[in-house]
Specification:
By secondary structure, the protein is an alpha/beta fold. About 45% of the residues lie in helices and about 15% in strands.
């Protein structure tokens, strides 16, 4: 049985017009009604007629990207990624539509509005979640998208950096410099890359014969302030770690601030390292040791992969895994 808008209208008790506008994400349908209609559509397995939609709307020559509102426009990770995506899109004659949303049902509704309104021809998705509902939605809609990261199903075009290998390199570097008490500021386990980087930490500690201490594992939210707060907790322990690894550079920069606030010297007293190699890492005082992932270049590659997909061209590689590079600077060198 083919599921149509009429089927959903009969099941939900709303008009076809209301059903259509709810599924397209228009805000003149209240949130409760829209959610009720979406749940019915998902349960019935409704698939929109994308071919007819594209015939009506044609292509927009625009690709879209949604970033967390909490990142504002000051998060260097997103700024470098957007720069790469935007530059490559312009090379193909495409525009970039950007939206900032909270990580919630509101964010998913933004995807529904963009897809349902045919505002863009495809979407770049970054910082993948475990069991990510955005990916589930885009796959159900058969909508072109690419991912910065890895997906459990492995069924979508993606570019990622081998975070497991990168973290192993940092731990080995710490140990080579005489550190045995190593603290880690991880990100939320809701983020897919957290599990990959955490696996590198666990593997390295085990292979090097170092015990993992629960008190040495704390969580931040990827902001500089959260890194500073988390490092403060580590440094206030009766036997604090002599080296701190943060799962991104902003938290590592915060950790450096916490070390310096206690009158300690970063590098000599407490080694600190991060992950990303954002522009601020090299200019920090002291310069930050980090795992480099070429964010700008990855953004360019993602845009190219997406546009080729939109244009029906074959991809040279469907899933790209970039080898990480450990950049050793003064923040982890003993003086």
């Amino acid at each position: 049985m083919k599921i149509t808008l009429r089927t959903i209208a009969e099941e939900s008790g709303f008009s076809i017009t209301t059903v259509s506008r709810a599924l397209a994400g228009y805000d003149d349908v209240n949130a409760e009604t829209r959610q009720h209609i979406i749940e019915i559509a998902d349960r019935l397995g409704y698939q929109p007629n994308l071919t007819a939609r594209h015939l009506r709307s044609q292509q927009t020559n625009t690709i879209g990207m949604i970033i967390p509102r909490t990142a504002h426009f000051s998060d260097p990770f997103y700024m470098e990624l957007l720069s790469g995506v935007g530059r490559e899109a312009s090379e193909y004659g495409y525009d970039l539509l950007l939206s900032a949303q909270t990580r919630s049902e509101e964010e998913l509704n933004s995807y529904r509005r963009i897809v349902g309104g045919s505002r863009v021809d495809g979407i770049v998705l970054a910082r993948v979640l475990v069991n990510d509902p955005r990916i589930d939605y885009l796959q159900r809609q058969r909508y072109p998208f690419v991912v910065f990261g890895r997906v459990e199903s492995g069924e979508c075009p993606s570019v990622d950096v081998d975070g497991t290998a990168g973290i192993r390199q940092v731990i080995a570097h710490f140990v080579a410099n005489g550190h045995r008490r190593i603290g880690v500021i991880r990100s939320s386990h809701a983020l897919m890359f957290t599990g990959q980087r955490y696996a590198g930490y666990v593997q390295a500690m085990e292979s090097l014969g170092l015990p993992r201490v629960d008190a040495y594992e704390v969580e931040g939210n990827l902001t500089q302030q959260s890194g500073q707060d988390a490092a403060a907790r580590l440094l206030d322990l009766p036997e604090p770690p002599t080296a701190i690894l943060a799962f991104n550079d902003l938290m590592a920069l915060g950790a450096m601030a916490a070390v310096q606030q206690r009158g300690l010297t970063v590098g000599a007293d407490v080694a600190v390292a991060g992950f990303d190699d954002i522009s601020a890492a090299a200019g920090a005082t002291p310069p930050l040791t980090t795992v480099r992932q070429p964010i700008h270049d990855i953004g360019s590659r993602l845009a190219s992969m997406l546009i080729r997909q939109i244009q029906g061209q074959p991809l040279d590689e469907f899933q790209v895994l970039v080898k990480p590079e450990l950049i050793i600077r003064a923040s982890s060198r003993r003086r």
